[in-house]
Amino acid sequence: MSVIAITDHDTVRGVMRVKEPVQDGMKIISGMELSSYSDIESYIHLACYFPKTADFSKILEEMDAHVREVRVKRCKTILEKLEQDGYPIPYSDIEAKTTDCYPSLPIIAQCLLVLFSLWFGG
Fold it and tell me: By 3-state DSSP, what share of the chain in percent is helix, strand and coil, each rounded to 5?
């Protein structure tokens, strides 16, 4: 393998850490997996690949607030549904885990595991 694409989900934070477009003889293409939605598909993921001249700081600046807002809204909706079903997770628990990332389904799952371990002594 001589080429690899590095992508993050809805951000370019990870690709901004790539210092060289070639490492150990392997060419690195920077990209992003972008979430999208439509009336007929609940989740669509687009693979976006950037030219070498891409301004990742500008991309991050323009997308970050919007993506965070969407993710926080989705997370709070999920937490409301979980609470209605008897699984209360305060949003502050999510916030504590998302200082350098967006709220995500794996973070909600981590908080559920903590809740279950408190309930069942695991």
Answer: 45, 20, 35
Query: Residue 79: which of 115, 52, 51, 54 has the closest Cα?
Result: 115
CA 30 from chain centre, in angstroms, equals 16
Amino acid of residue 58:
K
Could you tell me which residues come within 8 angstroms of residue 23 by beta carbon, excluding any fewer than 6 positions away?
Answer: none
pTM to 2 decimal places: 0.69
Q: In this predicted model, what pLDDT tens digit does every residue of 20-30 receive, in sequence order?
A: 767 678 888 89
Q: List, in order, residues 6 or more apart from 82 with CB less than 8 Å away.
A: 88, 89, 108, 112
3-state class of 55 per DSSP?
coil
